[in-house]
Amino acid sequence: MSSFLSSSIGKKLIMSLSGIFLVVFVLVHLILNSFLLFDSTGELFNAGAHFMSLPVIRFGLQPVLFGGFIIHIIYAITLTLQNMKARPQKYAVQNLSNSSTWSSRNMFVLGGLVLVFLAMHLMHFFIKMQITGEVPTTMLNGEEVHNGAKLVKDLFTTGTLGLVYTCLYVLGAILLGLHLSHGFWSAFQSIGFSNNIWRKRLEKVSYFYAFFIAAGFTIIPLYLHFFAK
Amino acid sequence: MADKILKELTLKIWRQKDAQSKGKFESYQINNISGGTSFLEMLDILNEELISKGTEPVAFDHDCREGICGMCSMFIDGRAHGPDDDITTCQLHMRKFEDGATITIEPWRAGAFPVIKDLMVDRTAFEKILQAGGYISVNTGGVPDGNAIPISQDDAEEAMDAAACIGCGACVATCKNSSAMLFVSAKVSHLAKLPQGRVEATRRAKSMVAKMDELGFGNCTNTGACQVECPKGISIANIARLNREFLSATIKE
Amino acid sequence: MTVLNSKIPAGPLAEKWSKHKAAIKVVSPSNKRKLDIIVVGTGLAGGSAAASLAEMGYNVKSFCYQDSGRRAHSIAAQGGINASKNYQNDNDSVFRLFYDTIKGGDYRSRESNVHRLAEVSGDIIDQCVAQGVPFAREYGGTLSNRSFGGVLVSRTFYARGQTGQQLLLGCYASMNRMIGQGQIEMHERCEMLDIVTVDGKARGIITRNLVTGEIERHGAHAVVIASGGYSNVFFLSTNAMGCNAGAAWQAYKNGAYFANPCYVQIHPTCIPIHGEQQSKLTLMSESLRNDGRVWTPLKKEDAIKLQKGEITANDIAEEDRDFYLERRYPSYGNLVPRDVASRAAKERCDAGFGVNGTGKAVFLDFKYSIDRLGRDVIEARYGNLFQMYEKITDQNPYELPMQIYPAIHYTMGGLWVDYNLMTNVPGLYAIGEANFSDHGANRLGASALMQGLADGYFVLPYTIGDYLADEIQVPRIDLNNPEFVKKEKAVTDRMTRLYNIKGNKSVDSFHKRLGNVMWENVGMARNEAGLKLAIKEIEEIRKDFYKDLRITGDFDAMNIELEKAGRVADFFELGDLMAHDALDRKESCGGHYREESVTEDGEAKRDDENFAYVSAWEYQGEGKAPKLTKEELVFENVELTQRSYK
């Protein structure tokens, strides 16, 4: 088994399984965020956020999620370093635009940028809500809970920074979408679930999914910035 | 029909004395090349001129010049086998270029394919992978009649699709990671699709992948560039099959 | 005078091989381990021999000039491989395959060898299937067959248009298994430059490592030459650029007889030469003649306009087109054999009716088939060939007729071998295209692959044991033996001589001149005056070559010019021998057409009374005329008839 994990295909399997796991997480995340669109009072969103901070999720699922991220990142770094080593001398002229998509060639860069965005994103919300607790509160069904909805709205609406953050979050969503547009079908290819027919289908699903996620995460900050004041 | 004439071309060619030396680009002018000339014939003409000037001709690999032996290589203007689809360099013709153009010609670049001289590279790594398991273990003689095991036409055709690989190395050269997955997967798929090859399919997949990893090829990131630049149109569906074969081999272990 | 002993076993034709196998000696497994065999060449013959011999337990050393054994030019064979399986129930049999091959070879091959070839043909298919060759299949899962020129049954097995490639990958895979097990020592980018004999027996070879330029010695108990044919003596041929006669030629210069050098096959459907700088001719599958009609203009003025590029084929009216094959050969029409079609095209072009700028091309027109069957049908049949044609010529064959012209394709002649495939030098074998034995004066389509694999898989592995059984006491060959030292020095001297000429002209310029003389005088049609002229001109070019050759680059490193120079030096001598042989054979047979020996209506005329023999030539030293020995051909099972396709 250790030889399997150190083989190129084994490493790719881990990338793809952790990737698929993160793909699912991103969807759950988007669904939760979309509560902000459907309930302007923020109660629905706060209920969701509250559920997410229940001990079973906080201490059960969150470590798994972080594990998924870390594995995905560590293996991405390992594979990329190996790949760079495999071509010690670069081409003077290389024209790949004809044969592959930009995002497929730049997964590591895209992933890195998404990671930078993620760091900022965690500082904005996750650390405040789950660690330091410096968050306004509100009453929900007779219980005092974090008013996450306000935290989010404030971020995108306060002053000039609100516009900057809106733009950054839109950018983050686009980067994530590009990353997913290749990562989604690629994950299935790596576990062997693909052939000439299914690859075309999976690519379509991949583009649709990537667009859906990117669009979803783009709409929310834009909506909050322009319409939720 | 009169062919177009390319009055002047500038060739930027990688020159490297041997594997140990450090190479560099040299520029050459070449004139009055007709569009019907093949790319390699254009290099022949250049070499004639170089010899007449007393300098050493450009070394490049080539043999059958009809697109099947897989010997010719070269990265031309940023693409493996040059700016045309579904061909090898020997099938590339000068009509694909414009008069006055500068053409950059480089050897395949990959750690696993060290340069031997000029545009020639050492592709022995491919042979080592094949020696690790790219065969069916039968001796000569004592085999069943050719019709003893029926093979469905679809399977035979699919095996043939993969077996069409000429082992030129364009996939490795094109891949941004210098991965040999398309080559290895074509060889594995060809044999895995046939009942004769099924018998040792798992062993084959494991040993060929292990050898591939050992030889310093990069990892596949599914960009799909290899299948576009492959002169024989080998599909990356074969890579999916190799992944499947390899994973099931591991699970069975 | 040496009398050639062909060692053909006695007895009825159909029993010769099985009786012979039962009679010859066998080497025990423990002794095989002590014996080394060198195989030069990794095409179908060399590859299959190396793999089979290694599987049996011999230590094999395999050599090829390419960067991988799987690139040998067998890979370029398109059509298929014959076998008398009778899978189609069309009354095929060993005898029928034997008969077709003898007749196709214009009765200039040995009955015994050809019959053996037919006998083992079925085993080849079984072997290839077991190796994973993806032959075409019927819906029911059984093997599919196609028919091919010159025969009345469907016995050709194929894998799309890449049969040679697939068969070669099959035997190369078997080689790889043996390389992996250490049973074959593989030497790539390594060219054999001389043969070493010790006490009259072949004991090794001298090679040049093409990467480092080192001259190396390799010893073995037997040497097998499987280096293919010599078509490249013509410079332009359908052979790969590197194909050369070096190995066979060194065997000849070391005492092996060279048989029937003048038998050369010319393929009628190649893409014409486009200009001076052409390096290589490309074959278009013969199958195109099934649906294409061959023609040239009827009026010379039309031909001239075509040559000047003023009109295209479509401008020529129907009644002004001369379908000369249909005119001359009403019963076979466009499907006459290769040699006949080639000569007819040359005749038209020589008469000034050629249709392209060089005046050396005829039309192969699919318009009529497209009208009759529809474009879809033609596309399904020949789509890939049409695409290849368009890539090369930039013309669309659906709209304009293809232009074709004959080109040198295969050489039937080669090293003389006995029934055991051994040359007259003990321990030196020749297999595949490198020997002369099975195709007579003309080879049938899809038979080259069959012969290469028959020799390598099922003949040589048996017959070589008969010789090696007496060699088991011989220890590993000592590479410091004076013979090795002498031959290594000879090779170094030869190469140094070429390198030090320091003249002004490139190797290719001489090779082109040689090719031109060969094509004009020793090509499709030959006559006494032309052949004598060729001998004179070859000698002149050869002298120029040794005076004015220029090789740049380093001597003791990779040097592509030096490699080529060595090969071309051999080609001069071989070209000379071909002309001598063609001069001697005052008859027309198969690929050899003497203008002095024709029927009243201009067809080839064989002379069985005077020329039913194999010409075996013996080297007499530099500058001396070669000596001819004749091996009479005895036909006990077939009746000799004159071919007619009228």
How would you describe this structure to a colleague?
The complex is a heterotrimer of chains A (229), B (253) and C (646). Helix content of chain A is 79%, strand content 3%. Chain A has nine helices and two strands, in the order ααααααββααα. The model of chain A has no long low-confidence stretch (mean pLDDT 93). In chain A, a hairpin with a 2-residue loop joins β1 and β2 (143-146). Chain A has a single domain, classed as Up-down Bundle (3 helical TM bundles of succinate and fumarate reductases). Chain B is an alpha+beta fold. Chain B folds into two domains: 5-116, Ubiquitin-like (UB roll) (Roll), CATH 3.10.20; 123-139 and 150-252, Fumarate Reductase Iron-sulfur Protein, Chain B, domain 2, CATH 1.10.1060.10. Chain B has helices at residues 39-52, 124-131, 153-163, 170-174, 181-192, 195-198, 201-214, 225-229, 237-252; strands spanning 5-15, 24-34, 75-76, 79-80, 102-106, 115-117, 120-121. Chain B has a five-stranded mixed beta sheet. A two-stranded antiparallel sheet of chain B has the order 6-7. In chain B, α5 packs antiparallel against α7 (201-214). The model of chain B has no long low-confidence stretch (mean pLDDT 96). With 646 residues, chain C is an alpha+beta fold. Chain C folds into three domains: 13-263 and 412-468, FAD/NAD(P)-binding domain (3-Layer(bba) Sandwich); 268-409, Succinate dehydrogenase/fumarate reductase flavoprotein, catalytic domain (Flavocytochrome C3, Chain A, domain 1); 482-613, Fumarate reductase/succinate dehydrogenase flavoprotein-like, C-terminal domain (Methane Monooxygenase Hydroxylase, Chain G, domain 1), CATH 1.20.58.100. Chain C is built from 18 helices and 19 strands. Chain C has helices at 16-23, 29-32, 44-56, 94-104, 111-131, 163-180, 246-253, 300-308, 324-328, 338-350, 367-373, 375-393, 448-468, 482-499, 507-521, 528-548, 560-584, 608-611; strands at 36-40, 59-63, 81-82, 156-157, 184-187, 190-198, 201-209, 215-219, 222-225, 258-259, 264-270, 293-297, 321-322, 362-365, 402-411, 414-415, 428-430, 613-618, 627-632. A five-stranded parallel beta sheet of chain C has the order 5-2-1-9-17, with helices on both faces. In chain C, a hairpin with an 8-residue loop joins β18 (613-618) and β19 (627-632). In chain C, α11 packs antiparallel against α12 and α15 (507-521) packs antiparallel against α16. Chain C is globular and about 75 Å long. The mean pLDDT of chain C is 95. The interface between A and B is large, with 44 and 49 residues.
